[in-house]
Design a protein that fits this description.
A hairpin with a 2-residue loop joins strand 9 and strand 10. It contains ten helices and 20 strands. The protein folds into two domains: 226 residues, Rossmann fold (3-Layer(aba) Sandwich); 113 residues, OB fold (Dihydrolipoamide Acetyltransferase, E2P). The protein has 377 residues and is of the alpha+beta class. The two termini are 45 Å apart. Strands 6-7-8-3-9-10 form a six-stranded mixed β-sheet, sandwiched between helices. Bound molecules: adenosine-5'-triphosphate (ATP). The site of adenosine-5'-triphosphate has 19 residues, from strand 2, helix 1 and helix 10.
Length: 377
């Protein structure tokens, strides 16, 4: 049983970089929590603090209730898997996997048994005598996982372990990692900047921006009820339609264009912020035959057919929207459509944008990362 608890963890670099801004988070025993966010949002630093590779400026790390701030990484019984695999090129797969056990003076017979066991679990038994250079990216990643697995650690920390794999392999390995985590029933923290990866893998997802957790919830909840504008924009592809504006007498008026939408009372009552942002997911935009409540005339701008969905860019009273519609619906550029924005699918967010100097600095600091970056409007 392993719980990991972060209590108001803070990490500052120098005088003006707050990499982790008072993060509190409890990862339950056997849970897979994904930290997701744009480049520079503090994910890796948070993970490195859990591993003991970085000392926090403030706050406590507790493993199974025991404060481990001063415990060396090698004594935390936590395995970390990195993006770069970090395999030893001159050692065989077998000796790469056995390395952590050799370093701990585990008897040879037991090492052999545990290496075979880990290799079988990862389906790489036939690769044990090869060198890393003779393996594909996916196989190398399995070896890196094997090296973490063989120690039978209390918890796994994964820092973008799938980022160097091609798209197809990444999806396969995603499933593999989740299967492994479930089979071992082990506590895992997985870091990624890929929101789709986060949403498919996590029992819970912690969406980070500017060193802080913006929302911590199961994927479905993060998708359906984003806590703020940042989460609404970051999660989901294509991302949520967002309109800036203000509310008066229960009606939302967009700043750009001429859109006015009456919003459900409970939403209006709960939204006191000015300015406000109205959000509606592309798949919630309906195409209807006759005018009624919440319907608008819209002009079709661009149509993109993407396999099983059709993304239609529409202009609705001067505002640009995306609608995800049935691929069999015949629509062309210039067509006029009647669209409905169902009130139960509308969300309102605090429209104040966080200023993001830290995010910009982060991009300068680490140019090697090609992930999505929060953009300011
Ligand atoms: N060793 C360091 N020295 C100075 N600043 C650092 C250091 N490590 C991280 N930072 C800064 O701390 C902030 C958070 O970085 P961190 O690597 O944790 O973000 P991240 O979300 O993991 O980003 P990425 O996806 O790019 O790895 C960034 O502003 C980054 O530039």
């Amino acid at each position: 049983m392993t719980t990991i608890e972060l209590d108001t963890i803070r990490k500052e670099f120098g005088d003006d970089i707050v990499a982790v801004d008072d993060v509190s988070l409890t990862i339950e025993d056997g849970e897979l929590v994904v930290l997701v966010g744009p480049s520079g949002s503090g994910k890796s630093t948070t993970l490195r603090i859990i591993a003991g590779l970085e000392a926090p400026t403030g706050g406590d790390i507790l493993i199974d209730g025991r404060r481990v701030n001063d415990v060396q990484p090698q004594n935390r019984d936590i395995a970390m898997v990195f993006q770069s695999f970090a395999l030893y090129p001159h050692r065989s797969v077998r000796n790469n996997i056995s390395f952590p056990l050799e370093a701990r003076d585990v008897p040879k017979a037991e090492i052999d048994r545990r290496v075979e066991e880990a290799a079988a679990m990862l389906d790489i038994t036939e690769l044990l005598d090869r060198k890393p250079a003779n393996l594909s990216g996916g196989q190398q990643q399995r070896v890196a996982l094997g090296r973490a697995l063989v120690r039978d650690p209390q918890a796994f920390l994964m820092d973008e372990p799938l980022a160097n794999l091609d798209a197809k392999l990444r999806k396969e390995m995603r499933t593999e990692v989740v299967r492994l985590q479930q089979n071992l029933d082990v506590t895992m923290v997985h870091v990624t900047h890929n929101q789709e990866e986060a949403m498919t893998m996590g029992d819970r997802v912690a969406v980070m921006n500017e060193g802080a957790i913006q929302q911590l919830a199961p994927p479905k909840e993060v998708y359906r009820r984003p806590a703020n504008r940042f989460v609404a924009e970051f999660i989901g592809s294509p991302s949520m339609n967002l309109l800036d504006g203000s509310l008066s007498d229960g009606t939302f008026h967009a700043d750009a264009g001429d859109v006015s939408i009456r919003v459900p009372d409970e939403l209006a009552d709960a939204s006191t912020a000015t300015p406000l942002t109205l959000g509606v997911r592309p798949e919630s935009v309906q195409i209807v035959d006759s005018p009624g409540d919440y319907t608008f005339e819209a002009t079709v701008d661009v149509v993109e057919l993407m396999g099983n969905v059709q993304i239609v860019h529409i202009v609705l009273d001067g505002a640009e929207f995306l609608a995800e519609v049935d691929p069999d619906l015949a629509v062309d550029q210039g067509d006029t459509l009647l669209v409905r924005l169902p009130p139960e699918k509308i969300d309102l967010f605090d429209g104040v944008q966080p200023d993001s100097p830290r995010v910009e600095r982060a991009v300068e600091h680490d140019r090697s990362v090609d992930g999505p970056v929060a953009t300011e409007e």
